[in-house]
Amino acid sequence: MRRLRPDIIGFSGLQDRAAVQEWFSKWLGWVRVVAFIGLIFGLVIRVGDPQVVATLRNAAFDFYHQSKPREMAPLPVAIIDVDDNSIDEIGQWPWPRTRIAEMVDLATQDGVAAIGFDIVFSEPDRLSPPQIARDNPDMPPALASGLAALPENDAVLADAFARSRVIVGQATVRTQAGNRTEKREMTDRPPALIGPDPAPYLLSFPDILLNLPALEQNASGHGMFATRPDADGVYRRVPLVMLVQGRIRLGLTPELLRVATGGGTYAIRTNDAGIEGVVLARQLIPTAQDGTVWPYLTPSSRSRYVPAADLLNGRMPPGRLSGHLVLVGTSAIGLEDFRATPLGVPMAGVEIHAQVLENIMAKTLLSRPNYTIAVELVITFTLCALVIIFAPGLSGRVLIFSSVLLLGAYVGASYYMFWENRILLDPTFPVLATTTAIMLISTVNYLREERQRQQIRSAFGQYVSPDLVEQLSQNQGQLTLGGESRDLTLLFSDVRGFTAIAEGFRDNPEALTLLMNRFLTILSQAIMDHKGTIDKFMGDAVMAFWNAPLDNPDHAREACHAALRMIADVEAFNARRMSESSAKRGPGKKKHLAAEDVQRINVGIGINTGQCVVGNMGSETRFDYTALGDPVNVASRLEGQSRYYGCPIILGQTTAKEVRGSFAVMELDVIRVVGKEVPENIFGLLGDQQMQNDPAFLRAFGRNGLMLQAYREQNWDAVEEALPRLRAEFRALSIGLEDYIEMYESRVADLRAAPPGPDWDGVYASTRK
Q1: Where is each Guanylate cyclase domain found (predicted)?
Q2: N or C, which end of the chain is more exposed by having fewer CB within 10 Å?
Q3: Rg of the chain, C-alpha, whole Å
């Protein structure tokens, strides 16, 4: 990014404005401008809260809820349940009001604190004796007069209400105001107001379904139960207070708590953003801005329930309801009082009321305060702004990593707020908005990088290998052109017996060229697949290195993986050649093979690690990107030694140290290669980690170490004794080290004939490259 020079600041207004405009346009750019406009548009959408946004947010909250439901705790809340078994035992629902009165009396005698009905008794009981007489005019006069003289069932229930503390439920009705024919004045005491008028924020219901007047009059309290699920049909919120026929009313659950704690006045606290909470029973119950609460549910539990039949028929344990706040409701399947819940399973409506009551008592309600929308908008703006400002200058890998880290941190913080504080902070919209910004920036970055790659290909394609050009175009910011010192791992490979192979093609040089091209393609692919750089091809030989031009901290292991892959791929290539030769002969043809068919290709590989100089080497008119240094020469010499030790892959001591534990590596010798005075420990790379962990290899590894120790101690008898056993163990592992065994057998014979003397250091001076 070009910076505005200080000396520009004092120029004339025209120059100053031009410089500022240039700097501004380069820093901001059209991408950031478009992204910021999109961000503002997205924030406006969030304020409008369309259904798709709310659905995603609710789905996230449901996931939170399901991942960690509230733990069940013993609380003085119970449900008298009209369940299927009770209906089977007592009779068809609705039961006579005398039965309901009996339930109230029995619960009161057991010591309940208060009883709330999740049932509305809006019509007279048709099972009352006087009503039966009126409904049957042909009944004998004596029987009719006797029934008429009995008390009304509703009066019996009203008397039972008077003997206890009962809260009758009143249902909201989703009709337009004035549709109901019967209107009765509600006489509940209005709440105290702390702050602005809460009415504009409350859920509003135009009509109400009340109980019979006698029941309403004898009740200690009147509570609303409203049914307003979210758009997807799930009941996530319950209103504690609401506006019914223009008056503020308490829900059934808080009204039950109010009556049980003395029946005092409650208050509503508001601020400019909406409702803060309801002050009830000497505590503030926080709510959302519309007066609703988010219950924190446990899975449905029968421990809350007392079947109505058990209460009526004396099977309930004495004291079961003592001191409890009791709700009366139905869970019978036929009565269809089940609601979809955030836990993903339906639950009886009365149990949802009971759980809300438990939440209030234990202070475990989920919280989504009225300021959370502002917090989420600020978080969304901040996350998106960070992406818009910094993402255009980041590589794809860094952008993805930082984005995952950033968004993961926010989602983790959102879940932490739920886990530890039960606060619901929307994880979806900020992540969705930020992801959209990332996608926009990434698309622009991709198009920009494609343009830069094309420029690099055009600039360097004339003098750098295609593989290196591609790496440059992908990682141009990491490349330093010119010589630099780096820790490299170098690989040299060569074909064993290439002269004999070439002689077999003396009459068909085109076939030899095709064969070598196929062969070198196999080696190249193995190197490139393991992030290596091919330096050059030298006839049948290949030179490659790792950790340049791009950083690769795992360069030694990658080189070893590539070497093992090269050996395996060459074996497969030999097998394919033999198969192709057999196919060419076909059935019935003479079973003799041409020279090119029978000549196997065997490869020797040397690998070494060390400090080298890597960069553009050559003349001013012609140069290559290559590596120089002593480790390069050692790697070349190690490749040559592979033919004498019978091991296809030989490692220098630095490489072996780097990869030990990840590969099956075995020490072979200490040698002084041609052209070097300092001896080098050499090691054979025999297999991958699976072989390294093989008990058979570990036994061979240990025996080989003992053999080498005896060899360096000039204990020739011990060496000769160990070699046959070592040969057997190598054969069991299918490791082709027969030449290695024979070499040491020959050396021991020579050393017996000409003992080296007491000052011998065990170093073998190689005279062959």
Answers
A1: 489-639
A2: N
A3: 44
Phi-psi map region of 661: left, alpha, beta (phi>0 left; psi -120 to 50 alpha): left
CA triplet 343, 344, 349: central angle to 5 degrees?
A: 75
Nearest alpha carbon to residue 477 among 390, 550, 547: 550
SS3 169: strand
User: Of all residues in the chain, what percent carry a pLDDT higher than 90?
Assistant: 46
Tell whether 411 and 520 lie within a shared domain: no
User: Could you give the CA distance from residue 705 to residue 178 in angstroms, rounded to a whole number?
Assistant: 100
Same domain, 509 and 425: no
In-domain check, residue 763: yes
Task: Give the three-class secondary structure for 326.
Answer: strand
Question: Is 214 in the same domain as 319?
Answer: yes
Identify whether residues 95 and 27 lie together within a single domain: no
Q: Where are the beta strands (DSSP E) in 446-518?
A: 484-496
Query: Residue 267 phi/psi, 5° resolution?
Result: -135, 155
Contact 596, 508 (CB under 8 A): yes
Cα separation, 331 vs 327, whole angstroms: 12
- Count of CB atoms situated within 10 Å of the CB of 757: 7
Beta strand spans in 290-378 (E)? 292-293, 305-307, 325-330, 338-339, 347-348
pLDDT per residue over 472-481, tens digit each? 566 655 455 5
In a domain, 424, yes or no: yes
Query: pLDDT, tens digit, for every residue of 110-160?
Result: 999 999 999 999 899 888 888 877 878 878 887 777 777 788 889 999 999
Structural domain that includes position 598:
481-584+594-687
Secondary structure (3-state) at 262: coil
